[in-house]
Amino acid sequence: LISSNYFILAAGSYAINFTAATTLTMVGNYIFGLSGTTVAVDISAIPKGVISDNFINNVTNAFVLTNLACVLLLSDNKLVGNTYDYTINASATGIVIVDPNPRTIATLPTAIAGIAGSRALVNNGASPTYGGAVSATGAVYSPVFCPGAGGWVYK
Fold it and tell me: From its phi and psi, is residue 60 left (phi > 0), alpha (psi between -120 and 50) or beta?
């Protein structure tokens, strides 16, 4: 359990770096990057976990998820001012993202089979049609869903 911590990251540092197979619960942490290349959460081997209700601000990569074959829920994290919120390796599987924070279409994670079932909210949709591809930009807030590879769709 990693809970209620305050991390301030200098250039080239990590707040959380998991490479061993262990169950992970990470809730209620604040992670702030000062400058340079920083990674808030880097996970390359866990069997299952929940990462929820964390605040991650001003880092290069909020979440780096590589080579995972797991059951991992990323839910209700507040991600602000990061260069990349989600960097997910194409071979990762079993990840579900529930992101209620409005974001642009361009900042959605790449739709891959490993994040099928993920949900987010875009703030620049254009004429959303249920089940239609998320691509054109406009000024409409709309929930979106990742069915796996092939792109995000309006929900």
Answer: alpha
pTM for the model: 0.86
Antiparallel, parallel or unpaired: β 93-103 and 84-88 = unpaired
Per-residue pLDDT of 76-95, as tens digits, reads 999 999 999 999 988 888 89
- Tokens standing for residue 49: 């976990």
Which residues, listed in sequence order, are joined to residue 33 by a DSSP beta bridge?
Answer: 9
Instruction: Quote the DSSP letter at residue 12.
Output: T
**What local confidence, expressed as pLDDT, does residue 124 receive?**
94
DSSP calls for 38-104: -EEEEES--SEEEEES-EEES-SEEEEE-S-EEEEEEES-EEES-SEEEEE-TT-EEEEEEEEEEE-
